[in-house]
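Case study 2.
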Amino acid sequence: MRSRKTNFLQAVVLITGIIYVITGGLFALSPHLFGNIFSVDINEDWFNEIPKDPFMFMTLTLSRSLAFLLFTIGLSMVLPLFDPLKYRGLVYYTGIIFPFVATLIFVINTITNSVGILMLYSAVFFIIFISTSVALWLTRESVKSGIE
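Prediction:
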Protein backbone atom coordinates (compact mmCIF):
# COMPACT_ATOMS: atom_id res chain seq x y z
CA MET A 1 0.00 0.00 0.00
CA ARG A 2 1.40 3.38 -0.99
CA SER A 3 1.38 6.36 1.32
CA ARG A 4 -0.47 9.62 0.75
CA LYS A 5 2.83 11.36 0.09
CA THR A 6 3.67 8.90 -2.68
CA ASN A 7 0.17 9.29 -4.10
CA PHE A 8 0.70 13.06 -4.15
CA LEU A 9 3.98 12.57 -6.03
CA GLN A 10 2.24 10.29 -8.50
CA ALA A 11 -0.56 12.82 -9.04
CA VAL A 12 1.97 15.58 -9.72
CA VAL A 13 3.85 13.32 -12.14
CA LEU A 14 0.62 12.37 -13.94
CA ILE A 15 -0.53 15.99 -14.31
CA THR A 16 2.94 16.98 -15.53
CA GLY A 17 2.86 14.19 -18.11
CA ILE A 18 -0.56 15.27 -19.35
CA ILE A 19 0.59 18.89 -19.73
CA TYR A 20 3.69 17.76 -21.66
CA VAL A 21 1.67 15.45 -23.93
CA ILE A 22 -0.90 18.14 -24.76
CA THR A 23 1.65 20.91 -25.31
CA GLY A 24 4.12 18.82 -27.29
CA GLY A 25 1.47 17.03 -29.32
CA LEU A 26 -0.39 20.19 -30.26
CA PHE A 27 2.70 22.05 -31.41
CA ALA A 28 4.26 19.04 -33.14
CA LEU A 29 1.09 18.37 -35.14
CA SER A 30 0.33 21.95 -36.10
CA PRO A 31 2.12 25.09 -34.93
CA HIS A 32 -0.59 27.10 -36.67
CA LEU A 33 -3.36 25.41 -34.65
CA PHE A 34 -1.27 25.83 -31.50
CA GLY A 35 -1.00 29.56 -32.20
CA ASN A 36 -4.72 29.88 -32.91
CA ILE A 37 -5.69 28.12 -29.67
CA PHE A 38 -3.62 30.57 -27.65
CA SER A 39 -4.73 33.61 -29.67
CA VAL A 40 -1.35 34.30 -31.25
CA ASP A 41 -1.92 36.21 -34.48
CA ILE A 42 -0.25 34.29 -37.31
CA ASN A 43 -0.37 35.83 -40.74
CA GLU A 44 -1.06 33.22 -43.46
CA ASP A 45 1.42 34.88 -45.82
CA TRP A 46 4.14 34.69 -43.18
CA PHE A 47 3.39 31.03 -42.55
CA ASN A 48 3.54 30.25 -46.28
CA GLU A 49 6.88 32.07 -46.59
CA ILE A 50 8.62 29.88 -43.98
CA PRO A 51 9.68 27.16 -46.47
CA LYS A 52 11.39 29.84 -48.60
CA ASP A 53 13.51 31.16 -45.72
CA PRO A 54 16.15 28.55 -44.71
CA PHE A 55 16.61 29.88 -41.18
CA MET A 56 12.89 30.07 -40.40
CA PHE A 57 12.33 26.64 -41.95
CA MET A 58 15.14 25.17 -39.83
CA THR A 59 13.77 26.89 -36.71
CA LEU A 60 10.23 25.63 -37.31
CA THR A 61 11.43 22.10 -38.07
CA LEU A 62 13.66 21.98 -35.01
CA SER A 63 10.96 23.39 -32.74
CA ARG A 64 8.44 20.83 -34.03
CA SER A 65 10.88 17.99 -33.39
CA LEU A 66 11.54 19.32 -29.87
CA ALA A 67 7.78 19.54 -29.35
CA PHE A 68 7.57 15.85 -30.26
CA LEU A 69 10.35 15.21 -27.73
CA LEU A 70 8.22 16.97 -25.10
CA PHE A 71 5.28 14.77 -26.16
CA THR A 72 7.44 11.65 -25.74
CA ILE A 73 8.69 12.81 -22.34
CA GLY A 74 5.07 13.30 -21.32
CA LEU A 75 4.31 9.72 -22.30
CA SER A 76 7.31 8.48 -20.32
CA MET A 77 5.93 10.16 -17.20
CA VAL A 78 3.69 7.11 -16.79
CA LEU A 79 6.74 5.08 -15.64
CA PRO A 80 7.03 6.68 -12.16
CA LEU A 81 3.39 5.76 -11.55
CA PHE A 82 4.35 2.08 -11.45
CA ASP A 83 7.59 2.35 -9.50
CA PRO A 84 8.22 5.80 -7.96
CA LEU A 85 11.50 4.72 -6.36
CA LYS A 86 13.04 3.29 -9.51
CA TYR A 87 12.13 6.22 -11.78
CA ARG A 88 12.86 9.04 -9.30
CA GLY A 89 15.67 10.32 -11.54
CA LEU A 90 13.19 10.75 -14.39
CA VAL A 91 11.03 12.85 -12.09
CA TYR A 92 14.03 15.03 -11.19
CA TYR A 93 14.95 15.62 -14.84
CA THR A 94 11.45 16.20 -16.20
CA GLY A 95 9.84 17.76 -13.15
CA ILE A 96 12.65 19.84 -11.66
CA ILE A 97 15.46 20.60 -14.10
CA PHE A 98 13.48 21.05 -17.32
CA PRO A 99 10.67 23.22 -15.87
CA PHE A 100 13.16 25.37 -13.94
CA VAL A 101 15.29 26.08 -17.02
CA ALA A 102 12.19 26.59 -19.19
CA THR A 103 10.80 29.07 -16.66
CA LEU A 104 14.07 31.01 -16.65
CA ILE A 105 14.14 31.15 -20.46
CA PHE A 106 10.49 32.24 -20.65
CA VAL A 107 10.94 34.92 -17.99
CA ILE A 108 14.07 36.33 -19.63
CA ASN A 109 12.37 36.43 -23.03
CA THR A 110 9.15 37.88 -21.60
CA ILE A 111 11.10 40.81 -20.15
CA THR A 112 12.22 41.86 -23.64
CA ASN A 113 9.01 40.93 -25.50
CA SER A 114 5.84 40.50 -23.49
CA VAL A 115 3.97 37.63 -25.12
CA GLY A 116 0.98 36.27 -23.22
CA ILE A 117 1.58 32.62 -24.07
CA LEU A 118 5.15 32.82 -22.77
CA MET A 119 3.94 34.28 -19.50
CA LEU A 120 1.31 31.55 -19.25
CA TYR A 121 3.82 28.78 -19.90
CA SER A 122 6.27 30.39 -17.52
CA ALA A 123 3.63 30.16 -14.80
CA VAL A 124 2.71 26.58 -15.74
CA PHE A 125 6.32 25.39 -15.72
CA PHE A 126 6.98 27.22 -12.44
CA ILE A 127 3.98 25.49 -10.85
CA ILE A 128 5.27 22.14 -12.14
CA PHE A 129 8.70 22.91 -10.68
CA ILE A 130 7.30 23.90 -7.27
CA SER A 131 4.79 21.04 -6.99
CA THR A 132 7.36 18.42 -8.03
CA SER A 133 9.89 19.87 -5.61
CA VAL A 134 7.38 19.68 -2.77
CA ALA A 135 6.35 16.13 -3.69
CA LEU A 136 9.96 14.95 -3.86
CA TRP A 137 10.75 16.67 -0.57
CA LEU A 138 7.75 15.00 1.11
CA THR A 139 8.80 11.54 -0.09
CA ARG A 140 12.51 11.85 0.71
CA GLU A 141 12.26 9.88 3.99
CA SER A 142 10.37 7.07 2.26
CA VAL A 143 13.10 6.81 -0.36
CA LYS A 144 15.84 6.55 2.27
CA SER A 145 14.03 3.66 3.90
CA GLY A 146 13.06 2.06 0.58
CA ILE A 147 9.32 2.28 1.21
CA GLU A 148 6.93 3.52 -1.45
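Helices lie at 4-29, 31-37, 44-49, 54-76, 79-82, 88-112, 116-138, 140-145.
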